[in-house]
Write a structure and sequence with these properties.
Layout (H helix, E strand, L loop, with lengths): L4 H5 L4 E3 L2 E3 L4 H13 L3 E7 L1 H8 L2 H8 L3 E4 L2 H10 L9 H10 L5 E6 L2 H14 L4 E5 L8 H14 L3 E5 L4 H9 L6 E5 L3 H5 L8 H5 L3 H12 L1 H37 L2
Parallel strand pairs: 3-4, 3-8, 5-6, 5-7, 7-8
Antiparallel strand pairs: 1-2
Length: 271
Amino acid sequence: MENSNLEYRKLDEVYFLGVKINNVSFDDVHEFIRDRIQKNEKGYICANDVCNVIGASQDKQFLQAVNLSSLNIADGTPLTWYARLVGCREIERISGMDMMVRMFAANNGYSHFLLGDTQERIDRVIEKARGINETIRISGYSPPFKEFDEEDNRMILERLNKQAPDIIWVSFGGEKQEMWMFNNLNKLNRGVMIGVGAAFKFFIGELKTPPRILQKMGLQWVYRTVQVNLKDPKKHLKTTNKFLKRRLIFICHFLGEVLRSRKEYRKRTGG
């Protein structure tokens, strides 16, 4: 992959309040994964939306986990707006679910491992994935729904290192999955980990994908928030308030960050 477009454009990463956003398309991400697998190297990819970016800007450990990722892709339309205004023309919004669907369908021989969520959902994802690609190699594991202790972590890593999958889809939810990938990368023998949040639920239809028009308007989070709160508003009230506050912070800083980053980008690229 020497002198590839991806290798050059990785220098075009931009930052929002200190949080990295890589200037990459889906094809770039696929190229990166293929390169790592061919070289038997490991790494992890974060798919962050506005909420995660603001959360990382407020938490040093979370920020470190995101910024030291192999790639930090924009799983949020407002992040692509920001990056394009700064100068990143190639960037695409890439959701965890869309990436999963395209990678499952590709006849590339990669082995996949689903980590997180319930065993029932994992089984349904595997069944649907085999309906898309009957030759796919895919398995999974649902760890305990709690903060992992040393034994829990040992069992997870033992399974991963025994099966040695090419791609590990990590569904622990925002922040937890990024921290886990960061803390356990050195304990993993091989494989590319990708944090995908609620992608398993979207893939099997338990959560509905927002209409395309809302996605283009950057309002997919509204659609998802309404879905979740209709089921149990009291349970999700605290999370909803956190999301709203973080989006307000993003809006308040948007223009200033665009102006600051455009100067840095032009200096770096000579544009």
